[in-house]
Structures are given as C-alpha cells and as structure tokens.
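Try this one yourself first.
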C-alpha cells in the first residue's frame, strides 16, 4: 500500500491541477534527515514485524518454531516485495518516498501483522509515473505469492472434516481453488484441505493484493484507475466504496476496511501533468492487474464469520438481562 500526502493548502496548482497563481521553484536542497528518520525506524519495524509474525504462529497458535519461521519467511517476503515494488518505481521516477513501514500487531492479528505501507511525500509527475508506481507493488507481491502458494498447497494435508470443527475456515479465492485442483486433485466429500504456515502466508498475501487493488481513492487500484480515467476515477471510487459498505453483510471485516478507506479519502489528487497519455501497453498491464484482483478477491475472507459474532452478542445480552 502506498500512502501519499494530500497537496498543501497553498498549492499553486489548486485542487484540480490548474495553475491558479504565479509560482517559483525553490532549488535549495532539502535538509538532510537523520539516519533514524531515513531508514532506522523502518528497519526496526521490519524486525519487530518479523518477530511478531514468528511469535504469533509459534507461540500464540502453538505451532512450534518451524512453522513460525516458515510463516515469517513466506509472509515477510510477499509484503517486502510488494512495498519495494512501489519504492523502486518511486526511485526510478524521482518521486520522494520513504522506505516501507511494517505494522507489527502480535496476538490481535491472525498472522501477527496488518501489512505495510510506504509514505509518498511528493506529487506524482504524470499519469504514467502514477500508473507504474501504483501497479508495481501488486505485481511484485503477486509474483512472490505464486511460489509461496505452490509450496503451501504442496505441504497442505487433505483430512476428514471433524464432526464439530475446531478450526478457522477460510474462503478460498479462485487462484487457491485452481492450485488445489492442480496439486491435490478432486477433494473427496467430507474432507477438508488443512493449510500450513506457507499456505497461510500465501492466503494472506493474496488477500493483501486484492485489497490494495480495489479501485478506491489512493489505494494501488485507485492509482491505476486515476491513471486510466483521470478525474472520472473519483466517481468510480465512490461507487466502489458503497459496494464495500454493502459487503459488511457478507463479512464483519469490511467494517474496518470501509472506515479506513473513508478516513484515507475517496478522491485522488492530480498529477503534475494529467494530460500526458497513458499509452496502450499500460492499458494491457492494467487489465492484467484487474485480472489478478479477480483471482485474489473473496467477498467474505472467513467462512461463517457473522454467526459467531451474533451468537456472542446474544449471550452477552442474555447475561446482562438475567442480572
């Protein structure tokens, strides 16, 4: 995920990119940042997130050191590839951006992290640069997801489904369904595929890829759609946001996502040169990006996620009224 800053209030190009007043370019070099602000905090967060992922799998889920190391290696590789795709593209176009900030969330998160983001501190020079920076992350992360997914499905076990399930059941995106059919064949009736740490890393990586490719605001998908459609992308962004709100009926996890996207904003700021055409090759890459979204997306990441919440609320209400 990339996280651009909004244009300053005194932006001489105005809210829509028109030059609204005379301006002068300040050619003085920017003050040098300290090593901590430049890369120290990013390295610290990366190490903390790696430890959080490892500890969540090894100790909180009780899977042991081997599974903790496998989840850490698989998931951190996917997240690092995604964010470095953005970062390297920013460096290529000389867009001011930070190194990735990783988010360690032990215990609370299923895998010990909420992902990562980079902070973009300057406006995109044109729509081509915006497109390349936006799509580079999902493509890089997806490329690493593929081998992790193959290894994860190879290590998965096909076992009889327990009479009373005591496991967390995931909804499988199309890519996982196809990989299971390829490597495991037809799953017998009454059996379930139990994934290991690499399968979990791949599942979470595909989920992160899909969420970032949603064409809303300043998500990666928002960058791509703005590069394709210009200001018309804001209308699409609002429609897709309302669809995200409706998806709360399918899964409670969309509550947090809808609020987060609303806070980040549904509009996309203009580039310095919105008039530069995108070109046909990038249109084809955009179609590839939306195809990746289609095979990674699931409307309800967790199966039957609303009933346990409803049951818990009923029990809580019953306890309160019985007092």
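Now uncover the answer:
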């Amino acid at each position: 995920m990339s996280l651009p800053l909004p244009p300053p209030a005194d932006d001489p190009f105005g809210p829509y990119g028109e030059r609204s007043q005379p301006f002068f370019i300040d050619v003085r070099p920017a003050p040098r940042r300290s090593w901590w602000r430049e890369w120290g905090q990013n390295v610290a967060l990366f190490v903390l997130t790696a430890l959080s992922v490892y500890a969540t799998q090894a100790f909180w889920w009780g899977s042991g050191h081997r599974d903790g190391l496998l989840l850490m290696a698989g998931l951190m590789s996917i997240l690092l590839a995604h964010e470095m795709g953005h970062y390297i593209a920013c460096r290529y176009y000389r867009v001011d951006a930070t190194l990735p900030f990783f988010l360690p969330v032990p215990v609370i998160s299923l895998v010990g992290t909420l992902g990562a983001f980079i902070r973009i501190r300057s406006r995109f020079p044109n729509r081509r640069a915006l497109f390349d920076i936006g799509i580079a992350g999902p493509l890089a992360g997806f490329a690493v997801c593929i081998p992790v997914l193959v290894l994860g499905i190879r290590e998965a076990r096909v076992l009889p489904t327990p009479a009373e399930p005591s496991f967390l059941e995931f909804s499988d995106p199309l890519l996982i369904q196809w990989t299971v059919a390829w490597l495991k064949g037809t799953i017998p009736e009454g059996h379930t595929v139990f994934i290991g740490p690499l399968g979990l890393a791949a599942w979470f990586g595909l989920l992160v890829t899909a969420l970032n490719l949603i064409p809303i605001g300043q998500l990666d998908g928002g960058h791509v759609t703005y590069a394709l459609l210009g200001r018309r992308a804001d209308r699409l962004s609002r429609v897709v946001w309302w669809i995200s709100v409706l998806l709360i009926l399918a899964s409670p996890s969309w509550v947090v996502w809808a609020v987060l996207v609303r806070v980040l904003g549904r509009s996309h700021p203009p580039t310095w040169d919105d008039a530069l055409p995108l070109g046909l090759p990038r249109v084809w890459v955009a179609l590839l990006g939306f195809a990746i979204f289609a095979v990674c997306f699931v409307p309800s990441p967790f199966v039957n996620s609303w009933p346990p919440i409803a049951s818990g609320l009923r029990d809580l209400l019953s306890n309160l009224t019985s007092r």
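Discussion: Residues 2-17+32-322 form one domain. Confidence is low (pLDDT under 50) at residues 12-27.
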